[in-house]
Amino acid sequence: MKHLIALLILAGSLASAAIEAREPFASSYTPRVAEDVVFRGASVLTGTGEPVATTDIRLSGGRIAAIGVDLPTTGARVVDAAGLWLTPGIIDVHSHLGDYPSPAIQATRDGNEATDPNTAQVWAEHSVWPQDPQFPLALAGGVTTLQILPGSANLFGGRGVTLKNVPSRTVQGMKFPGAKQALKMACGENPKRVYGSRDKAPSTRMGNIAGVRAAWAQAHHVMQERERAAAAAANEDIAAAAATPGVPPPAPPAPDLAMDTLIGVLKGEILVHNHCYRADEMALMMDIAKEFDYKITAFHHAVESYKIADLLAEAEICSAMWADWWGFKLEAFDGIDENIALVDAAGACAIVHSDSPVGIQRLNQEAAKAMAAAQRQGMTVTEADAIVWITLNAARALGIDAETGSLEIGKAADVVLWDGNPFSVYSRAQQVYIDGYRYYDRNDPDRQPRTDFDLRQTVNGGAL
Amino acid sequence: MRLHLLAGFAALVLAGTTLADTAILGAVVHTMAGEVIAEDSVILVAEGRIQAVGSALDVPAGYSIVDAAGKVVTPGLIVSNSQLGIVEIGGAATTVDSRVREHPLGAAFDVRYALNDAATAIAVNRRDGVTRAIVAPQPGNDPFAGWGVAIRLTDRDILTSVDVGLFGAIGAATSSYVGGSRSAVVQRMRRGLEQAQRYRASSYNPGPGDFSHADLAALKRFRGANVPLALEVHRANEIREAVALAEDFDLDLIVLGATEAWQVSELLAAQRVPVVIDVLANLPSSFERLGARLDNAALLSQAGVQVVFTVGDSQNARWLRQVAGNAVANGMEHAAALESITRIPAQVWGLEPGLGTLRPGAPADLVIWTGDPLELTQWAERVMIDGEWQDTSSRQTRLFERYRDLSSGNFGYR
Fold first, then answer.
1. Is residue A260 part of a domain?
2. Which residues of chain A neighbour B374 with C-beta distances below 8 Å?
3. Could B286 and A335 be called an inter-chain contact, meaning their C-beta atoms sit closer than 8 Å?
4. Which of A277, A389, A394, B244 is deepest in the core (most CB within 10 A)?
């Protein structure tokens, strides 16, 4: 019970933080009024690592209210879930939906501000087109929460945003209340290719590192200047008394939106999500984080995490990985199918991500492939382990694991009801709940959201 | 006559010393020749071919016995419209031989001379049960992309047949090569096929923008050969244009991509035009694909269209299983989906008779699976090509072995 109260308080403070702070583009998301639901006799994977169990689950007031056998059903809609599976809502920590929407034409390509290697001042949320038809496709795949990141052309690509996968006219209406923003950083081939081809720094990996270190050094410098100026402004008398006669007090530094982002990281308000493929480059980035005293939350793509899984575990850095993508570029050449399981086995935080509007529709299948690849090699990996890769560990990396990511009493009722074992290729999400509201139902056309763009030129999209 | 008969024969002679006659017992066998043998199955392989398949057959003396009880056997998987062997790393331009960009080579381009037996992706995909691939050029500067070949996913002598199809595309990508209109793409294709009919080198003097001698000679050769025209087309009206073109010039057409094919399924069925599709490509990702939907394959199959599956990434031909599985999840019959990665591609591309099936006389390409091959939680245990068990290690498994135990401190080169 204590646990429940703590979670509710935390959830409340997360929600109110967004309302109280006069932040720009604040979340305007409000949960829809949700009915009470009891799922009767579902096969449940809680996302906490517990093995699958047949049990009931009650959703109430948008929260997981009870888990157990033979729950009372008073006041609840009852779903006979015998033979069906229940998991937490799927979370994708690496998506570009809305920033690279369908249709993908020049007019819609808004994911990379590739005009300077440091564009920490841009925010991915400002490119999100809420009418991207890819959002409801991801919803039909069980995705309830997703992080939209800027692309990887730049060393500092800008800020990422965590969204609830709900229909909305505005991006503010999708923003996950209380979730921290991300800083997208990138190692390796992309920045050096984009700028090297323009005869501009960086054109090498050492140029990448120099550019990253220069920015962090500058961020510390500006942060100190701002702190001095703030202290001076806070106590003008002391500042005046301390001032050398004839020397004016320090002027506050000029506004700098890019520095706002980097300083936000140094203060722990923004989480670093670092695109990085190769093990050796991840190790360099880990040293830079130590040098400049910031935390890397997750390496993304991380196809070589298996080579340094012990180092990642020690540094408590998550790896967001594909199940089996490899070889499409040289820095992905050493990708192996066992990567995710090896990272998990080393005690590091393993996540399956999509980085793809196709892959995001079936992260459960991607997790299935990663699980099977490990089993094929004789490793012990269960469905209970694999579901964590696309739920709770993803929530951890977004800093929202107290609110969602697992089926635990008091947490948000972000839930997927599958028509079979979610690791079967034949299973599909039957119902998808966000904060207890049934946003998707495969058997109810009124609960299959369609964006404005999905309204076709013809009534049924070309007619059968 | 197709080269594959000769090439196939040569390969058998080369591999002959290591071929053992084999009996595979007890699996659930999907012959793809009309039956599933679930009880007491026996597959006999001799001299690189399926000798017999059935229930409770006698096993001749001297055959090596493979116990496959509890397993599933299918023919090897066949991927279509792949770049296996002609692209090593997509993002590394010097390893990409699938298209010609600046040099004017369209219909005359042929991928056969760049085929790399040692391409890393061959072993990776063979490990997951892919045994054959149609290797196709990609459009680079002309609506006609050139000629494709068929390969087997062995360690050497991979080429099994040339001239499996003349490839091309109608759509936004190729319209940029001809001034910017899809109409110009179709007009150029029609003009080329017409000119090829009466082409003579001595009397043809091409001007700017005209077909080169090489391209017209290639189109002339195409018109005289019994080879399909394989066009990537997505929008329904353009699929209709492609069908009309094939009808006017009396060509066998295969539609690749075929995103909106479900809208013209009756036409495709009536004209016996097969489609090659990636089921997972369900995004309205361009204005040519607004009609994209997950049940495209199911709708086409139900309408009687021959459906062949491909994947969105040549490095991962192994995704064929996932593509087929998702087709089933979205309404296609399981048996039909399995056919779309075995028997039908072999037939559509005119591969060696019997390929894609386990009927007697067929080349012995087969896979022993731990269970339902379309389930991603199952995997390939053994892979046979032309009667020879294949190595199922890959560069990836070697990396795994090197790093599976980090506590050893031994990472190979230290």
1. yes
2. 425-426
3. no
4. A394
How is residue A161 written in tokens?
Answer: 């945003």
pTM of the full structure? 0.94
DSSP state of B363: B
Give the Cα-Cα-Cα angle A221, A223, A227 (nearest 5 degrees): 120
Integer CA distances (angstroms), B150 to B257, B345, B385, B391, in order: 19, 11, 14, 21
CA A322-A420-A356 angle, to 5 degrees, is 25
The partner residue sitting opposite A462, judged by closest CB among B91, B236, B411, is B236
Query: In this complex, is the C-beta atom of B116 within 8 Å of any C-beta atom belonging to chain A?
Result: no
A347 touches chain B (CB under 8 A): no
Q: Please check whether residue B262 touches A, CB under 8 A.
A: yes
Q: What is the pLDDT of residues B301-318, one digit of tens each?
A: 999 999 999 998 989 999
Nearest Cα neighbor of B54 from B40, B67, B68 is: B40
Name which of B121, B263, B284 is nearest A103 (Cβ-Cβ). B284
- From chain A residues 20-79, the ones with a CB under 8 A of any chain B CB are none
Nearest-angstrom CA–CA distance, B227 and B251:
8
Q: Chain A: residue nearest B395 by CA?
A: A334
Query: Residue B393 and residue B376: Cα distance in Å, rounded?
Result: 19
Domain range for A350: 2-218+252-454
Q: What is the pLDDT of residues B223-259, one digit of tens each?
A: 999 999 999 999 999 999 999 999 999 999 999 999 9
- Chain B residues in contact with A456 by the CB 8 A cut-off are 290
Whether A462 has its CB under 8 Å from any CB of chain B: the answer is yes
| Cβ–Cβ under 8 Å, residues A181 and A264 | yes
- Nearest-angstrom CA–CA distance, B206 and B192: 12
**A-proximal residues of B, 70-89, CB under 8 Å:** 88-89
How distant is the Cα of A74 from the closest Cα of chain B, in angstroms?
A: 35
- d(CA B288, CA B174) in angstroms, rounded, equals 13
In a domain, residue A196? The reply is yes
A334·B376 Cβ contact <8 A: no
Q: Does B322 contact chain A (CB < 8 Å)?
A: yes
Q: How far is A326 from chain B (nearest CA, A)?
A: 7
| pLDDT digit string (tens) for chain B, length 414 residues | 344 444 444 444 444 445 689 999 999 999 999 999 999 999 999 999 999 999 999 999 999 999 999 999 999 999 999 999 999 999 999 999 999 988 879 999 999 999 999 999 999 999 999 999 999 999 999 999 999 999 999 999 999 999 999 999 999 889 999 999 999 999 999 999 999 999 999 999 999 889 999 999 999 999 999 999 999 999 999 999 999 999 999 999 999 999 999 999 999 999 999 999 999 999 999 999 999 999 999 999 999 999 999 998 989 999 999 999 999 999 999 999 999 999 999 999 999 999 999 999 999 999 999 999 999 999 999 999 999 999 999 999 999 999 999 998 777 664
| ipTM, 2 dp | 0.94
Mean pLDDT of A286-297: 98
**pLDDT of A252 above 90:** no
- What domains can you pick out in chain B, each with its CATH number? 77-355 (3.20.20.140)
Query: What distance in Å separates residue A213's CA from the closest CA in chain B?
Result: 27
Q: Please name the residue of chain A whose CA is at the shortest distance from the CA of residue B236.
A: A462
Q: Residue A34's domain is classified under what CATH number?
A: 3.20.20.140
Contacts for B116 with CB less than 8 Å, ≥ 6 apart: B85, B86, B88
Q: Is residue A234 part of a domain?
A: no
User: Residue B107: how many CB atoms within 10 A of its CB?
Assistant: 29
Chain B within 8 Å of A368 (Cβ-Cβ)? yes
What is the number of structural domains in chain A?
1
| A231 within domain boundaries | no
